[in-house]
Design a protein that fits this description.
Number of helices: 8
Distance between the termini: 57 Å
Number of domains: 1
CATH architecture: 3-Layer(aba) Sandwich
Bound molecules: 3-methylbut-3-enyl trihydrogen diphosphate, magnesium ion
Structural class: alpha/beta
Strand order of the largest sheet: 3-4-2-1-5-6
Helix content: 25-40%
CATH superfamily: Decaprenyl diphosphate synthase-like
Order of helices and strands: EHHEHHEHEHHEEH
Radius of gyration: 18 Å
CATH topology: Undecaprenyl pyrophosphate synthetase
Largest sheet: 6 strands, parallel
Strand content: 5-15%
């Protein structure tokens, strides 16, 4: 049943590079983009497919969006692939989502490495099957030299649980209260030394964060589109980035 995923994350099968002439160079593309890849289920319903096929189509789209990220100058991509709340889904769907990730780490590491992708994981590994957790750690190590794109996979990730684990580790390190600063706490997050996301894209139209990077996104810009994740293509990605470039990020400062 899961064989369909075996080649779903394959750079070598990718479409030819789109001529960037169609897409004028962005003057300051966001360094770090987060994506809440929502709408696989609704895409499946709309297209007469199973939810599993919807997640498959979503994974194929991720492969394309990674390539576009490099084309457009994005250096870090954080994708929300499985939330701590997604355990509430039927066991068969949960197993399918686990299997998708496992197939990616089983079959795509060479491709990812060849394409300069550095994989990282955000979330709690110890709640996953030990075999899968081990494969994820191997994948992180295998791709650690990647220089073109950092891909943070938020899998079994929840923003609140991330904050709790950061506080626990802070306490275990016996950090005194007066030493606790925003900067220090940031270092205890899964993202540790990474810059905060500049832009967060949410597909399929919901106006909520669903527990995604709630600490790091304090000053992120948002782009929300009704497009279902599997249909979120290059032109709309460019649109989101171009839209970001026009925003005035004031961080609470004065306008003008
Ligand atoms: C997003 O698609 C993928 C995950 C949450 C794993 P959904 O499965 O949430 O799709 P919808 O929201 O039901 O359409
Ligand atoms: C958010 O989508 C989680 C992921 C994309 C992995 P959900 O579909 O789980 O979010 P809700 O339930 O609509 O808030
Ligand atoms: Mg959803």
């Amino acid at each position: 049943m899961f064989d369909a995923f075996k080649s779903s994350f394959n750079f070598s099968k990718s479409e030819p590079k789109v001529d960037l002439g169609e897409y004028p160079l962005l003057d300051h593309p966001p360094h770090h983009v987060g994506i809440i890849m929502d709408g696989n289920g609704r895409w499946a319903t709309a297209n007469g497919k199973t939810r599993f096929q919807g997640h498959q189509a979503g994974t194929e789209n991720l492969r394309r969006v990674m390539e576009h990220s490099t084309d457009f100058g994005v250096k870090m991509l954080t994708i929300y692939a499985f939330s701590t709340e997604n355990w509430k889904r039927p066991p068969l769907e949960v197993r399918g989502l686990m299997k998708i990730l496992e197939n990616v780490v089983d079959n795509e590491l060479e491709n990812l490495k060849r394409n300069g992708v550095q994989l990282r994981h955000l979330g709690q590994l110890d709640k996953l099957e030990p075999v899968l957790a081990k494969k994820i750690l191997y994948a992180i190590d295998f791709t650690k030299e990647g220089q073109k794109l950092v891909l943070n996979i938020a899998f079994n990730y929840g923003g609140r649980s991330e904050i709790i684990q950061a506080i626990k580790r802070l306490m275990l390190d016996k950090i005194p209260p007066e030493a606790v600063t925003e900067e220090l706490l940031s270092h205890y997050m899964y993202t540790a030394d990474s810059p905060d996301p500049d832009l967060i894209i949410r597909t399929s139209g919901e106006f909520r964060t669903s527990n995604f990077m709630i600490w790091q996104a304090a000053y992120a810009e948002y782009y929300i589109t009704p497009t279902y994740w599997p249909d979120f293509g290059k032109a709309e990605y460019y649109q989101a980035l171009a839209d970001y470039c026009k925003r005035d990020r004031r961080y609470g400062g004065r306008n003008g």
